[in-house]
Amino acid sequence: MAIATVRLGSKASTSGLLKLGEYPDGQEILCPTITVRGRLDGPQLWVQACVHGPEVGGIAGIHDVLRRLDPDCLRGTIVFVLLANPLGYRDNVRLNAVDGINFNRTFPGNAAGTTSERMAARLMEAATEGADAVVDLHSGGNTVVSAQYAIYSHDGTQAGERSERLAAAAGFDVIWNAPSSALRGAAYLAYQDAGIPAVIVESGGGGQVTASDIENFANAIFGICAELGMSEPRPDRHPRQISGLPSVVRPGHGGLLLPRVCAGESVIEKQLVASVLALDGTVKEDLLAPKSGFISSITKNYHQVYSGEEIATVV
Length: 315
What we know:
Elements: E1 2-3, E2 6-7, E3 13-22, E4 28-37, E5 40-49, H1 57-68, E6 75-81, H2 86-91, E7 95-96, E8 101-102, H3 115-127, E9 133-138, E10 144-152, H4 158-169, E11 174-177, H5 187-193, E12 198-205, H6 211-227, E13 240-243, E14 247-249, E15 255-259, E16 266-267, E17 272-277, E18 283-288, E19 293-299, E20 304-305, E21 312-314
Parallel strand pairs: 5-6, 5-9, 9-12, 10-11, 11-13
Antiparallel strand pairs: 1-2, 3-4, 4-6, 7-8, 10-12, 10-19, 14-21, 15-17, 15-20, 16-19, 17-18, 19-21
């Protein structure tokens, strides 16, 4: 396979640039990649980070993998896509400013569509040239903290079944079998529709990258490599499986958010999830869990929120 002008050769590690589009001045919108080729032949794993601009934890996890990875003990090839969304990364935004689109709702993209849709189509084209599996690294970005878990979609296909195994191998205590309607247009679903098993790995956010997040991302990549036969087997994992559509918690008033639970916690219906504070510190509103489940994400402590803004999700 070729990425830009860089072709895989005998080197264990190769840096490349994948063109996704062009800026108004004609300069290329480029996605940097690092490809590590193992000593022995085997599958190709495509690992992408920064589909959402502020979610840089995946990049830190890739850095940790590169420090620890021994190509002599690797069977196959790993393509690390450091900036799947260069526009979002440059602007440090979740929605691409050029067209106001959530990049992770545009897949499989459209080669004749908006800027984001064209970028997604080009990324899909490059990945599906040779990838046998895809890992998409995410976190809550600047304002939201995500639970530590993996997302997959077992849709009854062989790719869906393999995606479930990859999610279990990521090493988390919880994995979510998300129906396609929950994340329609997400990259991992488009890859799976193309016959390539794919998972999302989520960890952290809230404007910081912790050592735990870095370890989670790196261990997920190593665990999935083992599941694919690219490295030595690891003990089987039996995480808790959750399923179904998420329920969103939205305040009726604006103010400062005071979370009462953490991402990853289990809650029961009508349990206190968060409070909205006025500027004088009084409680304007208490927000309750709409159902029993798992807090997959919640807005960070003392963040300013609008009335009607999504502040938490319960699966």
